[in-house]
Amino acid sequence: MERKTRTISQEELQLQREYCGRIAALWRERGRTPKAFVDTYGCQQNEADSEQIRGMLRESGYEISDTEEGADAVVINTCAIREHAEQRVYGNVGALVHTKRRHPDQKIFICGCMMGQEHALERIRKSYLYVDGAFNPHALWRFPELLYTALTGKKRVFLKEDCDGVIAEGIPAVRSNTLKAWVSVMYGCNNFCAYCIVPYVRGRERSRRPEEIVREVEGVIAAGYKDITLLGQNVNSYGKDLDEGVDFSDLLARLAELDGDFLLRFMTSHPRDAGEKLFRTMAKYPKIAKQLHLPFQSGNDRILRAMNRHYDLARYRELVRQAREAMPELVLTSDVIVGFPGETAEEFEDTMRLIEEVRYDALFTFIFSPRRGTPAAEMDDPTPKEEKNRRFDRLVDLQNRISQELHRDYIGKTVSVLVDGKEEGGLLTARTQGGRLVRFAGDAELIGRFLQIKITDATTWSLVGEIG
Predict the structure, then answer these.
(1) What pLDDT is stored for residue 2 in this prediction?
(2) Which is it for strands 428-432 and 414-422: parallel, antiparallel or unpaired?
(3) Would residue 325 count as lying in a domain?
């Protein structure tokens, strides 16, 4: 079946802006400024979505709050990647019954990836009667309309957009950080890894037009943002659905040539589509961080086939070789799943050997979590939870040792960092190009500046330095 991306028309978006105006007028009539709280679970894409939700709330006259207590609107942006995240959402949504009791006019909305699963949407609708509405990621652009309906119609609004995905340009955003900006370059995924729910809740891959991305990045640079992360479930697939003749490497190069004092990052690369052109582009431009997140998930070819990952270990090793040859200073991170259904003890040891061989700077480690509706959820899984936990602990111990060894190699070197904050103890915090955390003494006026820092000490998770 042919699948086409639907681009939301400017007429449709104008209608949503009109709803924002109507909501703002309602609050002006009531003689006060309402407050809104947006709580975000999950990945950077959810963070970017929440920034747009805050933008629409701001356009509707709301002041953004940092707590649900006393808020006139509460929006919970959910994640469906792992069971633990879902259970946290249910628990925290359950606790909102108390704030709703204290503030009966409070409007509560649940959105995000969980609401792309019909069973989760129905559970919220039937079991949490004080929740005023819910919508999935495809309907995010319609939030003003849904909020206006809840405010004026005295009825609950549960919207299930059944489509492969849309692109809506020009939604306002209130960014949660003054230095770091998330910019989505594409949405959805076509890979259908056996364990992953994302294609089912976020739809198929659809790329934004390059000129729209350039315009947004120019805007965040002009606003003073220094650290810009390009987002996509698989950024290396960018452009395949367009007629522009522009792939992700071309887009990166175009953005890296913009004027300004900034650094570009991106998340996430799939080994299926990464390659030498990407690595050469990263190496060529100083404004592209020499940091690559390249998930391998398992160090065993049989498990990779069962996961439907579309590459083998030989291909993965070659990508690592190419990337490090192009960028000797590269910081390499990855994702790994422990205990995929049917993983044997020896197959797990293959993963341990790969980690020892590649020597990642850091890993994001997960014990397999079955997601209803994915192929892996139906696979035979004979390995006891206790054994999975033991394997997980061994893997974490191995990676912690490697991370500490790699961090100690920084001692005596001078690195470029972006100063991004100050801790309670008084030390400034910063990030290297590779995303490594650095702590050092300095004045708060240095926050937002790129500096040269000499590394004097290291721990497993961070570096210690002084202004060079």
Answers:
(1) 45
(2) antiparallel
(3) no
